[in-house]
């Protein structure tokens, strides 16, 4: 589909970023609930940037009807939104798929939901554009605390290679999203712990070591090194792969 050519949009100004907060980390909470602390502890955009997050706000209202509910893969050159097309070209997003996470639309729904919520890293950047609906990306801060980011329609967010993170739908239980990739997609999640994984080491060097002073300012505590009960390393989990269906 031919789209009008426009320059790639700038990253969103701070006030347009999605809301983020430190999570209540009690074990027995519902993963789809807000899980805020009491009182709420908001997370600033500067903290999110220090963790390597980038964010653009796109006009999803205008173009959402032009995306299928599911297309695996989806040709990113079909983007009707000229800003998305410009971003795709500028950042080299050569692969995309479109999925809808809802019981009626996602095969193996229960397994997929569980898999998305397992703490993991990837060996590439994660790029997600929210076409409709909403959900939570949780990621570890400089002190290994969970930050919850509430993504909604129009949000395009990237998570850097090697960051510990997970995803869940919120209580509305519906998200329609485009997953973009540079080159051939690799869906393998590497579940925590991955302290010696090349991508984790790269992330520590690029973001955690660099922000040592910010880390100490945040709590005055030494960072905790959490070990997962899971002893496995890479999980070649076909459920993350669009080819699984
Ligand atoms: C992921 O990597 O967690 C997913 O692809 C699911 C979320 S897409 C909004």
TrEMBL record:
SUPFAM superfamilies attached to this UniProt entry: RmlC-like cupins
Pathway: Amino-acid biosynthesis; L-methionine biosynthesis via salvage pathway; L-methionine from S-methyl-5-thio-alpha-D-ribose 1-phosphate: step 5/6
Compositional bias annotation for Pro residues: 1-10
EC number: 1.13.11.54, 1.13.11.53
Database matches in Pfam families: ARD (PF03079)
Annotated segments matching region Disordered: 1-20, 214-245
Membrane topology of this protein: Peripheral membrane protein
Catalyses which reaction(s): 1,2-dihydroxy-5-(methylsulfanyl)pent-1-en-3-one + O2 = 3-(methylsulfanyl)propanoate + CO + formate + 2 H(+); 1,2-dihydroxy-5-(methylsulfanyl)pent-1-en-3-one + O2 = 4-methylsulfanyl-2-oxobutanoate + formate + 2 H(+)
Subcellular location: Cell membrane; Cytoplasm; Nucleus
Matching HAMAP family: Salvage_MtnD_euk (MF_03154)
Protein name as annotated: Acireductone dioxygenase
Organism: Corethron hystrix
